[in-house]
Input
Amino acid sequence: MEEQKLVERLRKGQQWAFNQLVTTHQNRLLKIAFGITLDHEESLEIVQDVFLSVFENIDFFRQEASLASWLRRITINSCLNWKRKWKKRFRWHHDPIDFQTEARLTNESFKKNDPESLVREKQFEKKILDAIKILPEKLRVVFVLNNLEGLPYEEISKTLDIKMGTVRSRLHSARKKILDALEMSNNTNKKRGDGNGKKM
Amino acid sequence: MEKKCDKYSFEDINRYVDNELPQAIHTEIDRHCESCVPCYNLVASIRSIDSVFNDHIEQQAMEFDQNIIPDRVKEKLAVTPKTVFGNIFGNTLGLFGKNIYLKLSGITAILIIGLAMFNGTVIGPSGPSAIVNYVDTELPYVMIIETQKQKHTIIWFSEA
Output
């Protein structure tokens, strides 16, 4: 269905058109929301509110950009507002998710043939995810848009209303921080490994 | 610590991975990575970070129940459906077209008619509508009258 027609039907308040909008975009928006918040329930809340907001404000959608970009923008703003709101209340942390992930990874590994190498692989993944979790908000949003949405630097700069050079430097900083965290943990592991070796 | 490449910076490699370099430089780094171990490893590390993150989010997204959002949204919209809300307000305010003066005069007319329909029950006189000071009669009597709509009580008292 053409976007123009979908928007017209949304403006008329047709339920069918709204179902179409949700079905088409919810998965993508959930990924963006989860990528930024790393919280399952909050992602659902955010995306739900995004659709409600679209439904209420569809008359203001001027179709200068695509519906997908408009939805993306609303989702990012909602995620950032969510983070700001919660930051004020208490320190942001995701221990329950860490726990769930670890439990899931361990269970999966045991089901496979080579549990040892799989556990090692999963530990590596966990380190990456841990490093991503502690990325500053500004770096993380750029990282999410580049990875999950596959957006080029120019598109990211338009979405976030920042300069292309800023996009580039934020993305590089994000990767640098993740790589540094990995290297640091590798060095720590090597040192621990050496220590164990001497004892043996 | 692994030895770094002197030819290409970390930023160059990042832009290479993101396909943000001119084609000629991109091809050049392609060839360079075949022989440069640090650059090759850096490209591999960046790609593995991206891939781990994407896979993780993909996996998490699969765990979302696809019906939750449509159901929740429908539930919320059922409370304030746009079709009902939009039509009520749309028709009331859009009845007189785009002319603001027509709209204002329309609203004023509705207010006047509304006030007239209340017939004084809401904003009518709160005190007595009239006070009779003197009745010229020779017969003593008391008359109590209650008005029909406003339920005002009139006490008519006369001394002989």
